[in-house]
Design goal:
Helix content is 78%, strand content 1%. It is mainly α.
Length: 332
C-alpha cells in the first residue's frame, strides 16, 4: 500500500514537472515571437534589440539562482568557483543571441525546428574530429531530422508569415540557428568538464556562474560605448511599457522553467527531461501555428512530423540503452 502511494505521488510530481516546463516555455516562446514581430504603440515601432532579451534573462536568472542558493544550498564548499564559467559564459552569450536574432529573418516554428537538430553538428564533429562510430539507428535519426529541417527550409513560407518578419532572409536565419547550435555544443562540453573537475557543483552553482558571466559580457556589449544598443532598448521600453512588461514575464518564464527542469532531472533523470522538452517544442510549433498566425502547409507539417519522429526515435534508443545498463547492474 505504501509503495502504491509512493507511485501515485511520483506520477503527480512528474505531471507537475511536465505542466511547469510546458507552460513556462510555451508561453515564453509566444512572448519571444510577440517581441520579435509585434509593432508597439501608435508609432508602430518594432523592438529591434532582441539581444537585450538575453541580458534581461541573465539578470533575472542570476538573482533567482542567488536566492535559491541562499535558501536551499546546504554546503558552500566543493562546488566550482564562479570564475571557472568565464569561457562557457562567452559561448552561452553569443549562441542564444544568434538564436533570438534569427527571429528577424525566419518564423518562430522554423527557428524551433532548426534548433531541434542539435544532434547533426554533434554527430558531424564526433565523426570528423574524434573518429566516433555511430550505430545505424542513430544515423536514421539524424537523417530524419536533417531531411525534415532542410526540406522545411526549402519550402515556400506563407505570405502572412513573411509579412510579420522584420527582415525576411531564410538563409541568414537558418545560418544563425546552426551557429547557435555550434556554440551550445561548446557550452555543454565546457559545463561537463567543469562538473567532472568539481563533482559537488549544484545546478544552482552552474546557473549562477553562467548568468553572472552572461550579465557581464552583455552589459559590456550593450552599454560599453555611448551609442550602445542597450541604451536604445531601455529607451524603447520607457516609451512602450507594454514591451517592458512582456520582457519581464519572458524572463520570469525562463527562470521558472529552469526550476522545473532541475526538479525533473533530479527526480526522474535527464532522459525524462529530454522527452518532456522535445514534446514541448512540438507543442510550441502547434500553438504558434494556431494562435500566432503562422500557418503551415500540409507538406510543412509533414516535415515537422519527420523531425520529431527522428527525435522520438532517438529518445527511444536512449531509453533502451538505459534499460540494458540497468539489467547488467542487477546481477552485481
Amino acid at each position: 500500500m505504501e509503495a502504491h502511494g509512493s507511485g501515485i505521488r511520483r506520477v503527480f510530481v512528474l505531471a507537475f514537472c511536465v505542466a511547469g516546463i510546458w507552460s513556462a516555455y510555451i508561453y515564453q516562446g509566444l512572448l519571444q515571437e510577440t517581441l520579435s514581430t509585434k509593432r508597439f504603440g501608435p508609432d508602430g515601432k518594432r523592438f529591434e534589440h532582441l539581444s537585450f532579451l538575453n541580458l534581461a534573462q541573465n539578470v533575472v536568472c542570476l538573482v533567482w539562482s542567488y536566492i535559491m542558493i541562499k535558501l536551499w544550498s546546504r554546503s558552500s564548499s566543493g562546488g566550482a568557483p564562479w570564475w571557472t564559467f568565464w569561457s562557457a559564459g562567452i559561448t552561452n552569450t553569443i549562441g542564444p543571441a544568434m538564436g533570438i536574432e534569427a527571429l528577424k529573418y525566419i518564423s518562430y516554428p522554423a527557428q524551433v525546428l532548426a534548433k531541434s537538430s542539435k544532434m547533426i553538428p554533434v554527430m558531424l564533429m564526433g565523426t570528423l574530429v574524434y573518429g566516433i562510430r555511430y550505430s545505424f539507428p542513430e544515423y536514421v535519426c539524424t537523417f530524419l531530422v536533417a531531411g525534415g529541417v532542410s526540406t522545411f527550409a526549402l519550402m515556400k513560407t506563407s505570405s502572412k508569415t513573411i509579412s510579420k518578419l522584420a527582415h525576411p532572409n531564410a538563409p541568414l536565419g537558418y545560418g544563425l540557428c546552426f551557429l547557435n547550435l555550434a556554440f551550445d555544443g561548446f557550452t555543454n562540453a565546457t559545463q561537463d568538464s567543469i562538473n567532472a573537475r568539481y563533482p559537488k557543483t549544484s545546478a544552482w552553482d552552474i546557473m549562477l556562474g553562467m548568468n553572472l558571466w552572461g550579465t557581464i559580457y552583455n552589459i559590456i556589449y550593450m552599454f560599453g560605448w555611448p551609442h550602445g544598443s542597450g541604451f536604445e532598448a531601455v529607451q524603447f521600453c520607457k516609451q512602450h511599457p507594454e514591451a517592458a512588461w512582456d520582457i519581464l514575464i519572458y524572463c520570469l518564464c525562463g527562470a521558472v522553467g529552469q526550476n522545473f527542469i532541475f526538479l525533473t532531472i533530479s527526480r526522474f533523470g535527464s532522459l525524462a527531461n529530454t522527452t518532456i522538452t522535445t514534446t514541448r517544442k512540438f507543442v510550441s510549433i502547434v500553438v504558434s501555428s494556431l494562435l500566432s498566425g503562422n500557418p503551415l502547409s500540409t507538406k510543412q507539417w509533414g516535415c515537422v512530423v519527420m523531425v520529431f519522429s527522428g527525435l522520438s526515435y532517438q529518445i527511444y534508443l536512449k531509453w533502451r540503452k538505459l534499460q540494458r545498463l540497468q539489467k547488467k547492474r542487477k546481477p552485481m
